[in-house]
């Protein structure tokens, strides 16, 4: 008999062992082949027949992900593609195994996002309602008063959110010294008085601006890469892919946590999902937070017009299974990152959200609104998570995941 996890299996399998392959779980991984209802079925058993440490030589990419002692940033596109194309049942299962290895499976980070400066952006992102190039009905506004921001943060805390995020529709922070100062002061107040983590997204920032925000106590800075490098020029032309990566480097160098992810449903292919994941997973340090957005097509934007013309059978139309595959693959190759269901979650049925959590998501945006689109409300989210046996993730965790009490921080119940 051979030990298989916590069970034992008989050595003499009735079906022939067609091949012997190396396994990270032991010396060999027999390939058990049979035909069920006339369909050839191949099942790989990871069987531990050795007391030695597993070898990664000739291992499957998914086995490498599951058996390394620390996150890797040397993933190749071929390895990511192999994981992404793993049969869905195994992919989701192994992603959940990985998730439980690195995270408390009973916790979900609740984040609330507030638009502190809406509209008037000079960029030409095809999907965005806040660009001044498109007629979407979103008007350019000034930055809202600090007292309104603090009131929104208090409400978010009262409803159970532990990270408060602020977004401003700016291309960059050049010439916005007074705005940056107000934001920094607001961040300090929210951290100290409310005990909430803080995240901002203000467009491109340089090294000094990132350091200024870090000194104010900012937890994380969001700057999405949006999609793959190859598909990116089809989405935006006023800011390069490398511009985005430079901002992310500035944020990382300043000691801030990096929040970066993208949008699925921009007319990209599955190869673009793989390219998107490759960029993130080969960063010097994986993102602390990885938001996954599902496109919400907004009337008046070029992306909405483009996507509405595609037939329902087009392979450029996003399928839900592609969202799951992207999340599960991200969890396997970036195991320490917090994966957040962001914009577009309200378009998912509850069972679809459940599958996203099974695939490795452990954070959501919740509250009254995203930047310009709808958001699932606190009450319905709290009830949904209660039903699933989940609870809010505490604020201010150290690198081992242990909550760090801040001055005036209250316990999360």
TrEMBL record:
Database matches in SUPFAM superfamilies: Radical SAM enzymes
E.C. number: 2.8.1.6
Any one of the GO BP annotations: biotin biosynthetic process
Metabolic or biological pathway, per its Swiss-Prot or TrEMBL entry: Cofactor biosynthesis; biotin biosynthesis; biotin from 7,8-diaminononanoate: step 2/2
Root EC class: transferase
Cofactor: [2Fe-2S] cluster; [4Fe-4S] cluster
Pfam family, one: BATS
Keyword terms: 2Fe-2S, 4Fe-4S, Biotin biosynthesis, Iron, Iron-sulfur, Metal-binding, S-adenosyl-L-methionine, Transferase
Sequence ranges assigned to domain Radical SAM core in this UniProt record: 106-336
GO CC, any one term: mitochondrion
Molecular functions per Gene Ontology: 2 iron, 2 sulfur cluster binding; 4 iron, 4 sulfur cluster binding; biotin synthase activity; metal ion binding
InterPro entries: Aldolase_TIM, BATS_dom, Biotin_synth/BioAB, Biotin_synthase, Elp3/MiaA/NifB-like_rSAM, rSAM, rSAM_sf
Gene3D superfamilies xrefs: Aldolase class I
Source taxon at top rank: Eukaryota
Family per similarity comment: Belongs to the radical SAM superfamily. Biotin synthase family.
Family matches, as PANTHER family: BIOTIN SYNTHASE, BIOTIN SYNTHASE, MITOCHONDRIAL
Protein name (record): biotin synthase
């Amino acid at each position: 008999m051979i030990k298989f996890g916590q069970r034992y299996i008989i050595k003499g399998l009735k079906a022939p062992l067609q091949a012997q392959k190396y396994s990270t779980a032991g010396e060999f991984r027999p390939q058990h082949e049979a035909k069920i209802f006339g369909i050839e079925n191949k099942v790989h058993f990871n069987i531990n027949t050795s007391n030695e440490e597993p070898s990664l030589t000739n291992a499957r990419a998914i086995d490498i992900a599951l058996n390394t002692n620390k996150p890797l940033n040397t993933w190749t596109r071929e390895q990511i593609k192999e994981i992404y194309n793993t049969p869905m049942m195994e992919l989701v299962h192994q992603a959940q195994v990985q998730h439980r290895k690195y995270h408390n499976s009973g916790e979900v980070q609740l984040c609330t996002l507030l638009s502190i400066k809406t509209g008037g952006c000079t960029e030409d992102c095809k999907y965005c309602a806040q660009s001044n190039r498109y007629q979407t009905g979103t008007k350019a506004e000034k930055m809202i008063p600090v007292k309104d921001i603090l009131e929104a943060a208090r409400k978010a805390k009262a409803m159970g959110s532990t990270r408060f995020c602020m977004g401003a529709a700016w291309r960059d922070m050049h010439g916005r010294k007074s705005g940056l100062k107000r934001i920094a002061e607001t961040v300090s107040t929210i951290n100290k008085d409310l005990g909430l983590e803080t995240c901002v997204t203000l467009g491109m920032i340089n090294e000094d601006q990132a350091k200024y925000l870090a000194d104010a106590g900012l937890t994380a800075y969001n700057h999405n890469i949006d999609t793959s490098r190859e598909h990116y020029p089809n989405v935006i032309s006023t800011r390069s892919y490398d511009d985005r990566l430079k901002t992310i480097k500035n944020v990382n160098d300043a000691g801030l946590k990096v929040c970066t992810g993208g949008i699925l449903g921009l007319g990209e292919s599955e190869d673009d999902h793989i390219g998107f994941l490759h960029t993130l997973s080969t960063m010097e340090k994986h993102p602390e937070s990885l938001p996954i957005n599902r496109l919400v097509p907004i009337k008046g934007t070029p992306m909405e017009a483009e996507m509405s013309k595609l037939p329902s059978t087009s392979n450029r139309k996003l399928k839900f299974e592609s969202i799951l595959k992207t999340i599960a693959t991200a969890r396997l190759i970036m195991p320490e990152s917090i994966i957040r269901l962001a914009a577009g979650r309200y378009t998912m049925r509850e069972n679809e959200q459940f599958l996203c959590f099974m695939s490795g998501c452990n954070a959501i945006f919740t509250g009254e609104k995203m930047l310009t689109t709808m958001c699932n409300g606190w009450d319905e989210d709290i009830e949904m998570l209660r039903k699933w046996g989940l609870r809010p993730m505490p604020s201010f965790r150290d690198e081992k995941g242990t909550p760090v009490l801040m001055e005036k921080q209250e316990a999360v119940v």
